[in-house]
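Feature request disguised as a bug: please show the residue count (720) next to Serine/threonine protein kinase in the output. Example input:
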Amino acid sequence: MPPLRSTGADRDAEGPEYAGDYRLQACLGSGGMGVVHLAASASGLRLAVKVVHARYAEDPEFRARFRQEVAAARRVSGAFTAPVVDADPDAVRPWMATLYVPGPTLADQVKRNGPLSPAELRRLTAGLAEALRDIHRAGVVHRDLKPSNVLLTDTGPKVIDFGISRPVDSDLHTETGKLIGSPPFMAPEQFQRPREVGPAADVFALGSVLVHAATGHGPFDSDSPYIVAYQVVHDEPDLTDVPEELAPLVARCLAKNPAERPTPGEIMSALLPPSYEAEAFIPAQRRRPTLPESEPGGCPAWDADTRVRATTVAPPRRRLRIRPRLTAALVAVLALTGAGLYGALSTPAKSGPEAPARPDEVATAFAGWRTPLQERGPTAAPACAHGGGALYCVARGVGIARLDPVTGQVRWSRTTPIDSETPTAPALLADGLVGAAAPTGPLRAYDAGGGTPGWSAGETGSAPELYRPAGTAVVLSDGRGGLRALDSRSGKELWRHGLTGFSVPRLGAYDAPSGLLAVSETSADGSSTRVGTVRPRTGEVVWQRSLDGELAPLGRTGDGALVLADHYQDPLIDGLVLVGPDGSADSVRRLALPHRIDVRGVAVRGAVVHILDANGHLTAFDTAASKGRVLWELETGAGNVSVPVLGGDDRLYFSVQDGRLLAVNTARGALIGQTRPRLRNGRLGYAPMVPEPQVAGDRVFGTAPDGSVFAVDAREPESW
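Example output, currently without the count:
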């Protein structure tokens, strides 16, 4: 590791140039525990790197605690925190690198703009409750939740600095001689029984944070930490000016007895459903500030309550790289706008963008487009499928539509009774048909060319596990063990029966090269799973095998091996099981993952399985190695994501709940581009599942909660 340099008589004036392999750039803040710097990883990922003060680096007790907390922080997902990217607690100066998270702290927001509105406060309450639930599930107690440790982002609040105690935050000391937490936001038991502090202390801190957000001051207020400590233990909180609708819940959080406080889950339940419709915080673009000059090698010491504010240096604006010969074409098409599907229902030729790009322009550059499919009523991101040179999308409360992938123009649309929070993508059927289904209605087929209604299957809903297009057939399940298959073109029934060896099989992925459909069934006690493959046209079981564990088919490798998730505890998986194409016993391989993953979806290229968890953490796992091996891991910081989709040129794409589309280079494990959030009226609605993007050559199609479908150039993700 490069040396950590020092200047000046005071050792804490030391200004390291590196932390591990990370070159430290701008100083973001300095506080009692250490200094936070802006840095970048080799792939360009922006990081906030905290370097511990030298005087604590020499304290064995502090080093041990720092090491434990880094390990605990790694277990917490990145949906609600600034995730740990790298750390070295054993370095000469211990350090930890977390993902740089744009957005002001709650302390800054209240100080500059005053208390939050009731809608913003509900959103904050729900977001922090979710964050604490996630942190506590990982076995971590924050112990220092306060306004300066809450970042406000367009995807909801993020909690930073969890689990890392601050030895000099106050002159007040515990029996160990070091205070754990910040007095205005500490629970009574942190003063009285510091060794018995549990998750309920974080709930108390949440109550104090909410009072601060609603009023600009805490429920216990004094300039003296000793007086604050007395008030926390003995006095009733001051809830003046806290909105009436939230005051009872906040009061419960501030109960003196930890057992009387609600859990994070109970807080979320108390807020449903309005909290998910509350206005999301959209941070304004901020210029890079001019940092105060410091002594050579030093760092400006900011206010102690904002010392870890890793958000005051805005990311540099990315330059849009435009080939000179394409400049005129891009200027001409960047101004295109879309019209809604409602107009398309009567005059489809006028929907979507007004001017299509010329063929010669499309061949060299794709400027993108955006078409709103739903502009009224409760919105949800449309779900789309690409095939046969067309894009088909289902929108909530509207129906199914065919879009031109070049211009975004709506070619035809048909109303269907779809009113799901997350519409299911259309089913691409054989012989020029496309299917769509309502949550509890039939699967309906439409002619892909003109949208003429065709056959319908009236016994199924749109849950993905209830029907599966499979070559020239569609296999349907009633969810109770009954299966049948229809001819994709005519809708004629091919067969109807159960599968030998299965009671209530679950439909898995269809593998076009082999023409086989995977099925599985887990035992009632979850100890074993029967897996197999079926010929969709006949219902013949080709092979089946009983395997230990609760398994679920994920896909197939390039050599035809079936990949299954090995569940540790739903939804967490801790391994993969591979079964050869013939299903033989000697073809079964079990591979352990490096850690348990709350898997959202996988994308398989060759022998590499790309696993995306629900919080945006991406793992590339090579199954060709005898025991499997991790090629790379990437923390994107995105929460509530879609299933990942592979594209050309070592690209992988996935969508985020706020409408962003992210691009990853799978060769390097680097985030190489993302679109802006696309919220409707600045609101972020709750979606249990996010529709996956679609890839077609040099174009990627995404959808957003503003009810729109959009397209971007897959060749230039850095300019999105």
